[in-house]
């Protein structure tokens, strides 16, 4: 069903538009750091984000608030308001002086009318503000025509004057600049300051739709307006692109997951040196699929799938090397040694379980973000290139659990369970492989610490136990032994375990060495930046059919 979104036109929509693909990439960066989708969207709104291919960073609400505060503080540093109403006060006093002189001339200074005027001009109590002093003469029938006209002009300014007096009473002390603001300048300062304050309130409350783009342009310029429009369009653009499922609890759609996986895969492949993946040995051949981009010399027993062009080039090259000075021409003699046959891959089905350490230490140095990117990249590679394969992700901390791929972008390390239960991770992986048997099962372990939690049989059930390492650079001996027992069970099922270590501590190195002696798998020490290259090469080499 096609859904249309409408919003109030403010003239700026034609200038800026948000690229949903790049917005999703920005969301992905935060998801990889361990934020949930809602937290990532909130963080982008509050703190801004980078968009690939743009020279300017999108400002967040906090950035815009800081700009508004800087603008307000700039006015406060430039001006003071102590003399803002002095000119109006002088005009009032001059008008009242003229009226007082007229009353004395016509009625005498002892008359009731003169006394009433003087009681209004100089009341017994505090005289009050300039606006109040003007208001006291609103209904006075002036006898001096020029004084009456002057007061009418002043009364026309009464509401603005009251607004300025309120503003000066509330915020006047903040204005300590060297430049004295006259009345009109002070009014402009008040209007700008109040507009800045209103804008700040709307931004602080996240009420983006209530913000007038033209007002924001006048206050902070075009860059701020562009950021506002892009912030407004963040979630709608993701929804329109089919990346975000609408509702109170936003969720990434399968399309978004696929794009995240494709981006992660492209990032991983970008770090690979061309030609590094080697052959993968499996015991049984599957259906052979040609690889038209690669050829090799014909060997006895190979299917005769000849690449004609490369075979002819090989014959010409051989003849030229054999007779450097002889004229070259037709016909070309082709020998068996010239035949170039197309390389083939065998489509064997494989089951792979990625064990992802979710202990708290994985939050250090970008380890968990790198591991999640690799998991998404591997999932995308398998879905697009090896769709018959089975791929699962299992997270392990104090316990282990399977992580559905749609939830993978939002999972994070577990702060509440600080222990590492690789044994339970291997148990979950072994059950998944048993349900999805294949000729090439493997477990890929990404971890940065030795086991510190395990299960033991107790009566008809089992009991979870945890064990802190014994001293600095020590081990958790019982946890290690119970985990190695599980390694033996996995090995007995013919499953290969390849381990990618993100830490080189002696206790982890020693434990993994013992695990490798049992399973005969491989071990890689990798930094977070290298993890994707190492793991992807290992997967492809394990996956590729060996030539016989």
List its salient traits.
alpha/beta, 548 residues, 6-stranded mixed beta sheet, two-stranded parallel ribbon, 13% strand, 4 domains, 19 helices
Overview of the molecule:
The chain has 548 residues and is α/β, with parallel strands linked by helices. It folds into four domains: 20-78 and 191-252, no CATH class; 86-169, no CATH class; 287-346, no CATH class; 351-543, 3-Layer(aba) Sandwich (Rossmann fold). The chain is 48% helix and 13% strand. It contains 19 helices and 14 strands. The chain has helices at residues 20-32, 37-47, 61-78, 86-107, 112-121, 130-135, 145-156, 158-171, 183-204, 213-220, 222-232, 234-240, 254-270, 308-322, 367-385, 422-435, 477-492, 506-519, 528-543, and strands spanning 79-80, 179-180, 244-245, 251-252, 287-297, 340-347, 351-357, 390-396, 400-402, 442-447, 453-458, 461-466, 496-501, 523-525. Helix 10 (213-220) runs antiparallel to helix 11 (222-232).
Blueprint of the fold:
Layout: H1 20-32, H2 37-47, H3 61-78, E1 79-80, H4 86-107, H5 112-121, H6 130-135, H7 145-156, H8 158-171, E2 179-180, H9 183-204, H10 213-220, H11 222-232, H12 234-240, E3 244-245, E4 251-252, H13 254-270, E5 287-297, H14 308-322, E6 340-347, E7 351-357, H15 367-385, E8 390-396, E9 400-402, H16 422-435, E10 442-447, E11 453-458, E12 461-466, H17 477-492, E13 496-501, H18 506-519, E14 523-525, H19 528-543
Parallel strand pairs: 1-2, 7-8, 7-10, 10-13, 13-14
Antiparallel strand pairs: 3-4, 5-6, 8-9, 11-12
Helix pairs in contact: 1-2, 1-12, 1-13, 3-9, 4-5, 4-7, 10-11, 13-15, 15-19, 16-17, 17-18
